[in-house]
Amino acid sequence: MLLRHTNKDIKERKALNVNPAKTCQPIGAMYASLGIHGCLPHSHGSQGCCAYHRSALTRHYREPVMAATSSFTEGSSVFGGQANLIQAIDNIFTTYDPDIIAVHTTCLSETIGDDVNQITIKAVKDGKVPKGKYVIHASTPSYVGSHVTGFSNMTKAMVMHFAKSTGKPNGKYNIIPGYVEPSDMTEIKRIVEKLGIKPILFPDTSNVLNGPQTGRYSMFPEGGVTIDELKSSGDSMGTIALGSLASADAARSLDSKWRVPCQVQDLPIGLAATDRFVNALRIAAGVSVPDEITRERGQLLDIITDMHQYFYGKKVALSGDPDHLISLTEFLVSIDMAPVHIVTGTSGKDFEKRIQDITSHLPYKVNVKAGGDMFTLHQWIKNEPVDLLIANTYGKYIARDDDIPFIRYGFPILDRIGHSYFPSVCYRGGIRLLEKILDALMDRLDRDAPEEKFELVM
Amino acid sequence: MSTKLKGRGSNSNENKSGDALPDRLSMIDPEEVKKELLARYPAKVARKRSKQIMANKIDEEGEVPVMSANVRTIPGIITQRGCCYAGCKGVILGPTRDIVNITHGPIGCGFYSWLTRRNQTKPSSDKDDNFMTYCLSTDMQDKDIVFGGEEKLKTAIQEAYDIFKPKAISIFATCPVGLIGDDVHSVAREMKEKLGINIFGFSCEGYRGVSQSAGHHIANNGIFTHVVGKDDSIKKADYKINLLGEYNIGGDGFEIDRILDNCGISIVSTFSGNSTYDQFANSHTADLNTVMCHRSINYVADMLEIKYGIPWIKINFIGAKSTAKSLRKIATYFENPKLIKKVEEVIKKEMPQIETIRKDVKKRCAGKIAMLFVGGSRAHHYQELFKEIGMKTISAGYEFAHRDDYEGRKVLPDIKIDADSRNIEELAVEKNEKKYIARKTDKEIEKLEEQGLAFKSYNGMMPEMEAEALIIDDVSQYETEMLLKIYKPDIYCAGIKEKYAIQKNGIPMKQLHSYDSGGPYAGFKGAVNFYKEIDRLVNSKVWDYLEAPWQANPELSAKYVWE
Ligand code: SF4
Ligand code: SF4
């Protein structure tokens, strides 16, 4: 057994996190920054954080993830990191020539109390920021929130820095896709455009973190929201933010600063959440939904009705991020699966409340915890076994020990590909999720069936 | 490319193994390349980098240029390096399976060092402790940063103890911890007293030192102070050694164990691949220390010698020939004809199959060129394997090495201690009168030295490379990209952060920290694995598809029209 010390005996823990179901803010900020075209993320702190965040993102995407660091030494930790950051900005623009540097802080620079805003102003004054180039920044201490918070903070920083209102509406809608994969961002954009709506989608990591092999490496790939688009986001007709934790802050600040009306929707994962998203788009923009999208919806529903017998009553354990888990749980419940254990590492009462609302009518008890960890999830599973586990790659240790069908979902996925190419959002993404669920469950049926019950047609 | 071309003497484009170099390379002047690498940097940066980029020169006495190493990374340069915590918790303590490691800090540091290095471990039974699959963190929150996290750490230790009942717990400090003044050592002492198990802390905050190397040092000092020497029982075996600086990445250690086992040589303790607490505690009973990755651990070998009387030699199990040579060194040390004979038998048994494969692979790989930028000894060791299949390393450097790793151990006395290394504790070690046993008399050592066995010594990378090879310390992303453009190597070796930017240039890349998904590459079987792996990488046709047909022939002409 790989997790041989995990047993049924659940003891309350006050201080110790065992096998986290979250990670730290800066990686979310780095990921969001990569969704700006021509941007080099910069980690203001000691170089280990940056190395870790780059490595984790690289392993998840199998793509180059470039970012610079202030490389604090003991001296900078005592006297502050101003000199390091200014030198870094100079070196980055001279050597790598990005259009924009997006600085996020780390635990260290936050604990020291570096004033990054003041430092970047000084860098501009000192002539370290070439004309037409930008430095933006977000405060991302990891002792608050999680990687999702970092994503949210950097996304907010984008609009706070760039958005302007010229008084002339641009006829577009801001879409904040949430902390989702590049493939999901493409899919969200496709749906929006299919409805005849022109989006400004940010951040947008499609064509950045799922780039092609061409034999020619470019540090700043094609994708990403442009600075002009970000500037223009203050002139948009409205903002639709997907996933309240990851996207709402940016949307609300656009609303309060530039009066761009916003709505916050759940991530469009599964049938009902996608319905709400499409409906919201339709109503906001006053457009009708093209048949093609309605057809996709019908296809998703068709699979649900065709294969319902395999979903029905199957118990599921889930670990992941709040925005995803809310929609995913709703989806599972809607197809009569039984999510019984749900854990996220990110704290927040809202999450538990939402999950309880979604599951309150069910005839069984649902374990849910925000600010939990995968050790707890595993202990719950030991006490009440499940038919399916949905989690990031770390879940495979639980799945192997307890012989549970397993679907990789969330961040990080370190041992499979697919997530950056195939979406799991909207109707088509729903189809992919169902395919994965069915593959996992039905492979298990095939594996375990006695010979006389082994079936060709299922 | 503006690099000036330079003709060289007719014999200068032959490397030591006698394989001719591709013509384009003999035309590249490393001094010109250096200039080109520096041209774009701001003046101050260029000045600093110029001391870390060196065209290799070897004079008649075998002396090489002074290399600036183990110096601060320039902010913003895009470095390969990680931090002290990564070196301490990730590299050194990570591979030990039965010590419960608690990261004291916010969640990230612990999370990223959770199972991400491929250090394999194999408990001897299902009942044995194995905590390696667990990530334990105090997950500090803002109130802990403001009011201090010591109480939380104590509670966390108690909770970890209650769940895991380990024989030892170690605590790792991350960046904010040092700043807010949490004292992990006093907490460790208090909890050790309370729980009656061994508990010790590491001040390995990420900002200490200039790279992972500082963390290796802190970790090794900690193990030496808190664990080594705690168990005096003598293992019954004829030839007892410790293996220092071997981390069992991709199962390297398993293969080394297999070979040593065949020779009848017993490992008391490996630092730290596939290791256990008890092995460390007992390690002072070995009769010889063999040092593999000297960068990460040579000081431990020194301390074990001073305190317990165990001599040390440098060995290297990377490469079939090096493996054979290392086995012979160990046999020479024990001066037992039986062992010497056994070692020769093992070598004789293993070598023929290796040779067949090596020769076959060499046919396809000879004359190709490699670049290695990694670690603190691997960029050196792995040149050996490339050489065995006729490939040449044209440029190399380390991520976190010190001068001695480039120039050889003899420069140690010349290395100036700067502000960044001063805060890494050097232990003052003395002879332990009770436990010290001189394994060899001075005379015996002298005699062995005369036979060619070098004690306390290792060569640097530079004297063993070609003159004119380009050596670069702490290479930056920009320099990497320039090297690819100028030299067009057939393979580039580095770490995960570099991997895909290199491959996107259409150049195969091999990770030499984690081995991607491969290994073992150490020992005899490892050599074969590596030959095959490099053959796969540099000779695969997958790199030929980079252009779509319409990119290769963009013009539409009449003849493409359907007939
Ligand atoms: S938790 Fe803080 S110190 Fe650790 S990796 Fe994240 S930002 Fe760096
Ligand atoms: S050279 Fe590589 S294996 Fe050796 S300590 Fe350094 S990183 Fe580890």
SSE blueprint:
The complex is a heterodimer of chains A (458) and B (563).
Chain A: E1 17-18, H1 25-33, E2 39-44, H2 47-61, E3 68-69, H3 74-79, H4 82-95, E4 100-105, H5 107-112, H6 116-125, E5 134-138, H7 147-162, E6 173-176, H8 182-194, E7 199-201, H9 227-232, E8 238-242, H10 244-258, E9 262-265, H11 271-285, H12 291-311, E10 315-320, H13 322-334, E11 338-344, H14 349-359, E12 367-370, H15 374-383, E13 388-391, H16 395-402, E14 406-408, H17 426-448
Parallel strand pairs in A: 2-3, 2-4, 4-5, 6-7, 6-8, 8-9, 10-11, 10-13, 11-12, 13-14
Helix pairs in contact in A: 1-2, 1-7, 4-6, 7-10, 12-17, 13-14
Chain B: H1 23-26, H2 30-39, H3 43-50, E1 53-55, H4 84-93, E2 100-104, H5 107-112, E3 136-137, H6 142-147, H7 150-164, E4 168-173, H8 175-180, H9 184-195, E5 198-202, H10 212-226, E6 239-246, H11 252-263, E7 265-272, H12 277-282, E8 288-291, H13 294-308, E9 312-314, H14 320-334, H15 337-365, E10 369-373, H16 378-388, E11 392-397, H17 403-407, H18 419-422, H19 442-450, E12 470-472, H20 477-487, E13 491-494, H21 496-503, E14 509-511, H22 523-539, H23 549-552
Helix pairs in contact in B: 2-20, 4-10, 7-9, 10-13, 11-22, 14-15, 15-22
The structure holds iron/sulfur cluster (2 copies).
One iron/sulfur cluster (SF4) sits between chains A (24, 26, 49, 52, 106-107, 142) and B (105-109, 174-175).
